[in-house]
Amino acid sequence: MPIRPAHDEPGFAASHPGYAAHDDGFATHGFPAHGFPAHGLAHEPGFATQQVHAGEHDEAAFGARITPIYLSAGFRFDNFAQARDRFAGDDQGYVYTRAGNPTNSALERKLAELERGRDAVVVASGQAALTVAVLAIAKAGDHVLSAQSVYSGTRSLFTQGFGRFGIEVEFVDDARDLDEWRRRIRPNTRALYAESIANPTNDVIDLSGVSEVAQAAGVPFIVDNTLATPYLVRPIEHGADLVVHSASKFLSGHGAALGGVVIDAGTFDWSATPGAFQHLTEPDTGLQGASYLEAHGAGAYTAYIRGVTGALFGPVLSPFNAFLIQQGIETLSLRVGRQSSTAAALAAWLEDQPEVLSVNYAGLPSSPSHDLAERYLPRGQGAVLSFVLDGGEPSAEAFYDAVDLFSRMSHIGDTRSLILHPATTTHAHLDDETRARGRISGGLLRLSVGLEEPEDLVRDLERGLAALRSTRSTRSTGSTRSATQERRPAASAPLLEGSTR
Ligand SMILES: *Cc1c(COP(=O)(O)O)cnc(C)c1O
After folding, report:
1. Whether 446 contacts 435, CB under 8 Å
2. Which of 15, 192, 333, 449 has the lowest CB atom count within 10 Å?
């Protein structure tokens, strides 16, 4: 017996009293009708209000003010008929946590609201979100076109993970070049993919430009909004069809839990290109011969994740983690706003240091992404930045080992500031050419700026620079290896050292 999605449309809204829905079953971007103090106001609540209140259950037992952790594998049926109806989708209650859970669905509603999507599905990690999102679109023989500069785990998933399943992912060389996106679309291309702010090079994607290319080609545009968060930009408002997040980063903020989410705008027409998305448009044995599109309408894609790529592959988010992520989101705007302004200050400060060759931060006027940042990220350009130290890897090593406040970690989005040397860690497995194309040089360090006092962070960066200066003077007097000898061959040097565009 296939696992039934526990909250199919339109019953999803009906089964969640207080979840406002339009007559057509579309989730509104308004608010639960109960339990929300601003109900009845003419204006839509602002982001800070939404991040606290959106999605919450209003029928919690004992009047619990926050959504409790429903840490239960399954849910009891009252009787024979209810069990049958629940599996048939005629009764909208929960069945089994792999297919749906009240704590998880409260988080799903909150994230759908904040991203202006129609619905959302939470899963166990950001990698799981990307996996279930792409596998609910593409099959063996299909092709996906991605921006060049993407999170290293995403790149590995695309090349090693999907490669073995016959889904080919190609990377456009210059994500700003809309003609290149257009040119490289093939008849079997099924999705375009990019990060709103790329990790770690801080390139900003032209959301509406790429979404127009996707729309013209009849394929969905998937945007990873992990670094920006919906506080800084909502890709769906600029034409994205699907948004994914690693909720382990800024959405949580505390660094205590992994999680991921796929948010569907609900607007992509899966039937526009005949034969392209047959798993959604053709009769499905699990749906008594109906197609996902016939059975679920605009909810077809999320129903497919809930019923197939999520529920059957099984990367379930623990309700415990959903609770922790929900706690984090309540302060999202405060954290990301503050972290962005500190990051902007640190980026400007780093740019003034003689040991720093270049700084990758879209908020800087020197950034090639500055125009796109002004257009898409007026509230701030995020908390992740990277910079290239003169002297390559030895300089980076000295700096890295000298900082005290910055934690040496391959993580971002934490309240604590973090530092990473991509070339020898997250990007170490790549060949030189791929690393060069991704502008990952030996001197590149990535920072994720936390909530500490900016002055304390500057002092810590000064410690790093002082250590670099002292190793350099040791090298130039005592050692035979000079910093310049550590550089890459001349031909690739400008590319590797960062400020090439
Ligand atoms: C961390 C990250 C991921 C992967 O998320 P996990 O929760 O670690 O699985 C995906 N995309 C981006 C941009 C990330 O930073």
Report:
1. no
2. 15
The closest residue, in CA terms, to atom 7 on ligand 1 is 126
Instruction: State in Å: Cα 420 to ligand 1 middle.
Output: 15
Which of 130, 149, 154 to mutate to test ligand 1, by most ligand atoms within 8 A of the CB atom? 154
Query: Which atom of ligand 1 is closest in space to residue 198's alpha carbon?
Result: 13
Gap between the Cα atoms of 181 and 199, Å rounded: 20
Regarding the beta carbon of 224 and ligand 1, being less than 6 Å apart is answered yes
- Residue 90, pLDDT above cutoff 60: yes
What is the per-residue pLDDT for 472? Answer: 79
226 Cβ closer than 6 Å to some ligand 1 atom: yes
Instruction: Annotate 83-152 with three-state secondary structure.
Output: HHHHHHCCCCCCCECCCCCHHHHHHHHHHHHHHCCCEEEEECCHHHHHHHHHHCCCCCCCEEEEECCCCH
Give the pLDDT score at 57.
Answer: 79
pTM (2 decimals)? 0.87
Q: In this predicted structure, which of 100-104, 400-404, 409-413, 481-485 has the lowest mean pLDDT? A: 481-485
Q: Is 326 in the pocket of ligand 1 (CB under 6 A)?
A: no
- Read off the DSSP letter of residue 359: E
* pLDDT per residue as tens digits for the range 336-394: 999 999 999 999 999 999 999 999 999 999 999 999 999 999 999 999 999 999 999 99
User: 100's torsion region: left (phi>0), alpha (psi -120 to 50) or beta?
Assistant: left
Q: Which protein residue has the closest C-alpha to ligand 1 atom 12?
A: 151
The reply to whether ligand 1 has any atom less than 6 angstroms from the CB of 302 is no
Asked if residue 126 has its Cβ within 6 Å of ligand 1, the reply is: yes
- The domains of the chain, with CATH numbers, are 104-137+220-329 (3.40.640.10), 332-496 (3.90.1150.10)
| Amino acid symbol at 145 | L
Rounded to an integer, what distance in angstroms lies between the CA atom of residue 243 and that of residue 263? 5
What token pair was written down for 294?
Answer: 């016939």
Query: What does the pLDDT read at residue 26?
Result: 29
B/e letters for 447-483, b = 16+ CB within 10 Å, e = fewer, are bbbbbbebeebeebbebbbebbeebbeebeeeeeeeb
Ligand 1 pocket test, pick from 149, 151, 155, 414 with the greatest ligand atom count within 8 Å of Cβ, gives: 151
Of 6-20, 56-70, 134-148, 471-485, where does mean pLDDT reach its minimum? 6-20
Tell me the three-class secondary structure of 21-78, residue by residue.
ECCCCCECCCCCCCCCCCCCCCCCCCHHHHHHHCCCCCCCHHHCCCCCCCCCCECCCC
Place of tokens 């945007």: 223
34, HSE (Cβ side, Cα atoms, 13 Å): 9
